[in-house]
Write a structure and sequence with these properties.
- This protein has 318 residues and is α/β, with parallel strands linked by helices.
- Helix content is 36%, strand content 24%.
- The protein is globular.
Length: 318
C-alpha cells in the first residue's frame, strides 16, 4: 500500500483558519468532547510518550507524540511524533502525518476557536508568554481571527523574546519584548491586557492573576499534568472558566486541579466546555456577565488532532 505522507508543508497549507473551522465544524456536527477517548501517558527514558486515539463515523486516527524535555538543549524539537489517519469503516490507513507539525497547528487552532467565541473583534493589547513554536503558532492563529493593535512578548530569553517581537512587527503589528518570564514578571503587562496567551513549559504561575482586568481573556496551553500550572488560583477563582472537556481538565489540568485542592475552585465552577461554548448551550452564568476575566484552559485532546488531520487530508487531495 502506497500510504501518503503529509509533512509540515501539507499541514501548514491548511492554515490557522482552516484548522479552526475544522474544529468548529466537528463540534457543531455533534462531537461530544466529554465522551472522547482519554490520552494515555507512558514514561520512557527520553521523557514521555503520549498516545491519543479518536474516532468519528468517517475517520479514525491515533497520534503518538513524544515529549522530550532535554531535546531543546540538543538543538532538537521538544515535541516529536506521527499521526496515523484511517478510514473509520475499514480501518485501512489513509495517510501518515507529521505529528509535531500537526500539534503546532492544532493547539493554536483550539485556542483560536475559544478566542473566536470569547473576545470581541479587536484585541487592543495581547500579552504573549513564551517564545517557542507554540508562541509563534498562537500569534498566527490570533492574527487570523482578530485585529490586534499591540503585542508584548514575555520570555525567559531576551533575545528570543525580541526575535518574536521583531517577527510580529514584520507582520505589521506593533510589538515589543517585555520583562523576563516568571511570577512577578509581566505583571505590568497583564494589567493592561485584554488577551493573555500562556504558551510555556513553566510549572508555576507566570503572573499575579489579580491584576488581569475584568473582561480580559486568558488562554493557557503549556501544561497538561496535575502538578503544573501557568496561572494562579487568584485568576481561576475570579474567572469564567471554559475547558475542552470537563473530564480531561479535571484529570490533567493543574491550573484547575491545584485551586480545587486548595478549596478555591470546584468542578461545578466550570462554566462550559468547548462544544457548549461553540453552540451556546448549557453555559454557566459567569460567561454572560461582565465581571471577572474569562479563562480557557487547554490540555490537548485526540479528537482535535483527528479533526485537523482529516481536514489536512482533504485539503491535500488532488
Amino acid at each position: 500500500m502506497n500510504l501518503p505522507l503529509l509533512g509540515a508543508d501539507d499541514i501548514e497549507a491548511l492554515g490557522p483558519t482552516g484548522a479552526v473551522d475544522a474544529l468548529e465544524s466537528a463540534l457543531r456536527g455533534g462531537l461530544d468532547p466529554e465522551t472522547a477517548p482519554a490520552r494515555h501517558h507512558v514514561s520512557v527514558p527520553g521523557g514521555e510518550l503520549l498516545i491519543m486515539p479518536a474516532t468519528t463515523r468517517q475517520v479514525t486516527g491515533v497520534k503518538i507524540a513524544g515529549v522530550a524535555p532535554d531535546n531543546p538543549a540538543r538543538g532538537l524539537p521538544r515535541i516529536t511524533g506521527s499521526y496515523l489517519l484511517l478510514d473509520a469503516a475499514t480501518l485501512l490507513p489513509l495517510a501518515l502525518l507529521d505529528g509535531a507539525a500537526l500539534t503546532t497547528l492544532r493547539t493554536p487552532a483550539v485556542s483560536a476557536l475559544a478566542i473566536r467565541h470569547l473576545t470581541g473583534p479587536v484585541v487592543r493589547h495581547l500579552v504573549l508568554f513564551g517564545t517557542g513554536p507554540q508562541a509563534y503558532g498562537h500569534l498566527a492563529a490570533v492574527l487570523a481571527e482578530r485585529r490586534v493593535e499591540r503585542v508584548t512578548v514575555v520570555g525567559r530569553n531576551p533575545d528570543r523574546a525580541e526575535a518574536l517581537a521583531e517577527h510580529t512587527r514584520r507582520l505589521g503589528v506593533d510589538a515589543r519584548a517585555g520583562q523576563g518570564q516568571g511570577r512577578g514578571h509581566g505583571a505590568g503587562e497583564v494589567a493592561t491586557a485584554d488577551l493573555v496567551l500562556c504558551c510555556t513549559t513553566s510549572a508555576t504561575p507566570l503572573f499575579d492573576g489579580s491584576l488581569v482586568p475584568d473582561g480580559a481573556t486568558v488562554v493557557a496551553v503549556g501544561s497538561h499534568t496535575p502538578d503544573a500550572r501557568e496561572v494562579d488560583t487568584a485568576l481561576v477563582a475570579r474567572s469564567a472558566v471554559v475547558v475542552e472537556s470537563r473530564a480531561a481538565a479535571l484529570a490533567e489540568a493543574g491550573d484547575l486541579l491545584i485551586p480545587l485542592a486548595e478549596g478555591a475552585f470546584g468542578a461545578e465552577d466550570i462554566d462550559g466546555n468547548l462544544a457548549e461554548l461553540v453552540t451556546g448551550r448549557n453555559l454557566g452564568g459567569k460567561l454572560s456577565g461582565s465581571e471577572g476575566p474569562r479563562f480557557f484552559k487547554s490540555v490537548g485532546m485526540g479528537w482535535e488532532d483527528l479533526a485537523v488531520a482529516a481536514a489536512v487530508h482533504r485539503n491535500s487531495a488532488p
